[in-house]
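QA checklist item 7 of 12: single-chain prediction sanity check.
[x] sequence parsed
[x] length recorded as 56
[x] structure emitted
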Amino acid sequence: MTNIKSATLKRNDKELEIFVGELEENSRGEPRYVASKQPDMKYVFYADPEYVTINE
């Protein structure tokens, strides 16, 4: 598991930056990130390099 500071999600020319993430693998060994935009909101997203840029 790797801690990340933020990630930028991009799709259809729109960007969203989310914070406080951790990189982990799902049961199939695919990388995914668990991150939150606010402390009470949690997002889980797959690390598709076409849409996800990790800001380290």
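[x] summary fact logged: The chain has one domain: 2-55.
[ ] second reviewer sign-off
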